[in-house]
Write a structure and sequence with these properties.
Number of helices: 2
Number of strands: 7
Structural class: alpha+beta
CATH architecture: Roll
Oligomer: single chain
CATH topology: Mannose-Binding Protein A, Chain A
Helix content: 10-25%
Amino acid sequence: MAVILSAACAPAAVAANQNNTGIHTALISNGETFIDAQQKCSELRAGGFTDWRLPTLAESKTLHEAGVFYGLSPQSKESWTSTAGKPGMHAIIWMFNGSSNIADDTRRFKVYCVRLAG
């Protein structure tokens, strides 16, 4: 079973999530550049784990399909992924509908960090 951490941007409490993806997730910020997003994930110490990172686009789509982002409105906007696009750009995902695009690394988007369960 995967775990999703509190969406309060300061993950402290761990709660079970019934998505069965094998991916732990944590929302840690509502607006960071790509470089800051990577740093926040690598520095995250939550749920007793230290191996947090940005998800790939494929992992983000898996989380979307599993309903991890279920109920989010269009105002929830985009989230960074680690999947590279052109130089200085990375893929983003719209969490409420699963669509994706490439964005300049200096833009600010939500940051979900992940780690593989197990």
